[in-house]
Amino acid sequence: MTHRFTLRVYYEDTDLAGIVYYANYLKFIERARSEWVRDLGIDQRRLKEEKGIVFAVRRIEADYLSPARFDDCLTVLTRPLSMTGARLVLDQNVMRDRTVLLQARVTLVALGPDGAPQRLAGHFGQLRK
Q1: Strands 3-8 and 99-111
Q2: Which of 15, 39, 43, 71 is an active site residue?
């Protein structure tokens, strides 16, 4: 169950050397996660408005392996690894063709209106297969 999200590197994503600024990879994988959740049929805005549930990044481990450059076409692969209670762990790779540029392991938590962890059951039930 791997999700694919494609994006283009714009000038604004790069530093003076024309290489993607390291923090922008976090934006790229965030966009990919948002689209993955949307493709699962979960409306994050509605979830927040109706139940007060939001997702927050708890932890990211990232390895920068090779640089992306201006005008590159990149693909972010998102793959769920585990889900327990209020926590979801994902692997996300940023690729240019077959070259892995960034490997990240991201831990997300669901938070309720009071900021306390909120169980994910029912929202990501299809991932428990």
Answers
A1: unpaired
A2: 15
Domains of the chain: 3-128 (3.10.129.10)
| Predicted confidence pLDDT, tens digits, the chain (129 residues) | 899 999 999 999 999 999 999 999 999 999 999 999 999 998 999 999 998 999 999 999 999 999 999 999 999 999 999 999 899 999 999 999 999 999 999 999 999 999 999 987 665 655 544
> Would you call 15 a catalytic residue per the annotation?
yes
b (16+ CB within 10 A) / e for 92-114: bbbbbeeeebbbbebbbbbbeee
What does the alpha-carbon distance between residue 52 and residue 125 come to, in Å, rounded to a whole number? 19
pTM, two decimal places: 0.90
Say how many residues make up the chain: 129
Query: In this structure, are residues 3 and 75 in contact, taking their beta carbons and an 8 Å threshold?
Result: no
Q: Name the helix (H) or strand (E) containing 106.
A: strand 99-111
Return the residue matching tokens 């692997």: 91
